[in-house]
Each structure stands twice: as structure tokens, then as C-alpha cells.
Amino acid sequence: MKELLKLQQQLVPDLLDAMERRYFVLRSIRLTEPVGRRPLAQMLDMTERVLRGEVEFLKDRHLIDFQPAGMRLTSDGRKLLAKLEDLMKEIIGIHKAEKQLSEHLGIAETIIVPGDSDKMPLIKDEIGKACARRLAALLDEKNTITVTGGTTMGSVAKALMDINVAGKEMLFVPARGGVGGKVSDQANSICAAMAENTGGTHRVLYVPDEVSDELRSILLKEPSINNTLSLIRSADIVLHGIGEAMKMAERRNTDEESMDKIMKGQAVGEAFGYYFDLDGNIVHKVSTIGLQLKDLPRFKHVIAAAGGKSKAKAIRSYMKNAPKSTVLVTDEGAAAEILKEE
To answer: What GO MF annotations does this protein's record show (predicted)?
Structure first.
């Protein structure tokens, strides 16, 4: 396949350019349907005249429909797009970038989805779908999966609705207590959604994300909390996001002294309550009940998901502490920014 692509690039370069252009038109319609020509042209940074020619071509081949509300993919269009995905990753160099990024970060595997979720928020749903597919491939007959909160994990939960996990027993357990922000983005809520969307079960961890030493000693005496912590420690798979340091500190309503420490330490990334500088040094740690950084190497599988160019520094900083077995699911925006430092 690689040799054929090289030959095509030499002999008929316009063919691959047209294929790539039409692939992105189809993919963008699927992400935003129903969508009109003008917003689609802006999204693709394409003139309306050029886009008009492309969508007419796709319509003539019954790959898209024009409707009053906007353009939609036909069933044939969806099937073709699914078949094109792996080939297009080869053509636009994503497979090569995945290998480079894994080697650069020193982790087992990287999965990159086309696009930048900073520019097109719906790309986060594509990260969620890729993460859900990778999770499904790792499942055994019985599985305990511990999950953090965050919007990316929420996208994974939504994507699991369309993943076939028939015959798999799945128990979802929150990796941590509650962080500030929307209830739907909390680990407890996401575990509940994942269980509902897969026919699995879930447990709850009703504790704050940050606790004092005195409160910690009291809470750890509660049997229900200890049972959940035992499930977290014995999980088969860890599924987690990576946050930007300042955004996470603000979401936690971090006190002035700790915020000053985070800022002076030039923290850029956060995961599991740990704040990291660009070199991966821990500049601050939140006192929490739940999964700890030192626990990660003991797990069979660890999947981290985060995307967008703005998350590049956060991903780099955390990955200097991540177990070598980590699978990173990200997008082109973050991947290209991280690889710039090579």
C-alpha cells in the first residue's frame, strides 16, 4: 500500500490531493450535519466556489444529500468514509506521526485523530470515539475500569453507546472524588453514563477531590469508601484525561497559597491531582482520596486522552511521569505541537 501511494504521488499527485480534499469534506459534514455550504467552507478554509464543486461531485455520486436544513451524508457516504479512514491516515502522514510521537514521549502507543479540537470542538468527540474503540479492543471477559472526570471522558462515555461490547462484563469505578465544575463532568457521573451505555455496572466515590489530612483519616474509616478504593486499586484498565494546570487549579477553587505555588512553579499540566512543569517535575500535589500517580505502573492498561494544540504542553509534562505502557489518544493539533520540539 505504501509503495502504491508513493507511485500515485509521483504519477498523479492531483489524485491524492482530490481524495484528501473530498475526504475532509465528507468528514466535516458527518461531524456537523446538517450543515450549510457557507459554514462548511469556513470550517474547511475553502472558498464557497471550490466547495460548491466538491459537494456537487459528492452529491452526483449519492454520497451526500442536500436538504433544507443542510447537507447530510447518505448511508453510502458513511460506509465510504469509514473505509477511507485508515487509508487517509497513511496518505496525510498520521501513521508516521503516531510512531514518532510514541517514541518521542516514550510510551507504548499513540492514536491520532485528524483535526484540532481547539479549532473544531467536535474533534473531541472523535477522540472519544477512538478512545472507546481502543478500550473495547483491550477488554477481557470481566473488566474493572477506573475513570477520571472531564469533558474528554464525557465524550468517551457518549461514544461507548455505539461500541459493541456484547458478552463483556464491565464495572466502572471513579478514580477520584469530585472536582469543581459541571456535575456531568464528574467521574461519578461519567462512570454512570459509561455503565448505562455499555450495559455494565458502576460504583460511586462520594468524597471531595481535595481533603485535609484530618478528614482523610475519618473518610478512610468508612467501609463504602474503602470498598471503592479497593476496586480502584484492583482495576484492569485506567482511563483518564490530562488537564491544563491553571484551568484545573481554577476549577478546584484552589486556595491562594497553593495557587501561588502552582504559578511560581510554572506548572503547565495536571493529572490525578498532580501539577507538573514542562520538564515533568511535580510542583504541587492536591491531597486526595483516590488513584495516585505512583499506582499507575501496577495497572495492566492505561489510556490517556487529551487533544487540541493548547493541551500540547500539558500532555508533554504529564507524559514524563506516565507509565511506559500508556496509550495516548490525541488529535493532530496537539501532536504537531508536541513534535515541534524534536
So the answer is: carbohydrate binding; DNA binding
Q: What is the pLDDT, as a whole number, of residue 277? A: 97
Which DSSP symbol is given to 163? S
pLDDT averaged per 10 residues, the chain (length 342) = 63 76 92 93 90 95 94 95 87 91 97 93 94 96 95 96 93 82 81 96 83 72 85 95 94 90 96 95 89 92 97 97 97 95 66
CATH 3.40.50.720 assigned to domain 2-91? The reply is no
C-alpha cell read off for 194: 459509561
Q: What local confidence, expressed as pLDDT, does residue 245 receive?
A: 96
Residues in contact with 305: Cβ distance below 8 Å, sequence separation at least 6, in sequence order: 127, 128, 131, 152, 153, 156, 239, 240, 241, 242, 328, 329, 330
Beta strands in the chain (DSSP E): 64-67, 70-73, 109-113, 142-147, 169-174, 201-202, 237-241, 243-244, 269-271, 274-276, 282-285, 301-305, 326-331
Long-range contacts of 209-218 (CB under 8 A, 24+ apart): 209/176, 209/177, 209/178, 209/179, 209/180, 209/252, 209/273, 209/286, 209/288, 209/290, 210/252, 210/273, 210/286, 210/287, 210/288, 211/177, 211/287, 211/288, 211/289, 212/287, 213/287, 216/287, 216/289
- Strands 326-331, 243-244: parallel, antiparallel or unpaired by DSSP? unpaired
